[in-house]
Amino acid sequence: MSLTFPLRFLAAASLAAASLFAQATDLTVAYQTTVDPAKVAQADGSYEKATKANIDWRKFDNGADIIAAIASGDVQIGYLGSSPLTAAITRKVPVETFLIATQIGAAEALVVRDGSGIKTPQDLIGKKIAVPFVSTGHYSLLAALKHWNIDPSKVTVLNLAPPAIIAAWKRGDIDATYVWDPALGVAKENGKVLITSAELAQFGAPTFDAWIVRKDFAQKHPEIVTAFAKVTLDAYAQYRKDPQAWLADASNIDKLVKLSGAKSSDIPLLLQGNVFPLAADQVVSLGAPTTQAITNTAAFLKEQGKVEAVLPDYAPYVSAQYITR
Questions:
Q1: Transmembrane region positions (predicted)?
Q2: What are the backbone dihedrals phi and psi of residue 95, each rounded to the nearest 5 degrees, phi first?
């Protein structure tokens, strides 16, 4: 048999593959160490398969840094909390909220050190509390102090990123921290939870995490954003269908530990402490409820001097179209 046809066929196939690769979109995604079912999909490469994009996953310690990266154009899609999101869109950073990642519950909490002398909320006065500024933890801490009628000026609030919080906690430099894992797990080892974000939500200060996208990227690649949302929601559906069976799969736990830094023994509680909305819930949430929550958060941040003004309408920064497409 002549080798001419096979060689020409292979050459054509190689050229076609090279062309497809060249057309693949480069996408940089900012993620954090939160514990959620979609991290299994991240570890498995499911996002790359669904979006057909070359994804560069970058870990960040807080939402403020993610917003800076998105504003500069270095990152196209990012995961952050409602407080830094609100601060960003109040300053008119061109982004859209296309998915509610989680309604935060026990996965974020205020922990006080054993031996610090803090037995009640009033004992926080004069103490050092570490929290990443403009984070959901920061918002929740200020909301907790307000709920307890404690003047924030009577507490020393230190702006530290989670890795720095871990180091400061281990040195004994701080008395308390409002944070998430893995720093939350470290603090719990020799501390007690004073209040969680789930309890604060009942007091009228709910927080959530969200996936956001640069508007220019979404307009150019709506199919990528839609596929990204679908992978996330599929992961949520798999977990919520049978949480116990999902947790019984050791590979799921291993992947969460690898990407979050949380202890395997803490994973069940952290997952159960949050709500991961399914597609039908997203369609409802990504409208008036989220817009109102952002508006309320903006009013609180303005009251605390964290933003200069509250926008008249936050609807342009929230969209369910990538869920309903």
A1: none
A2: -130, 165
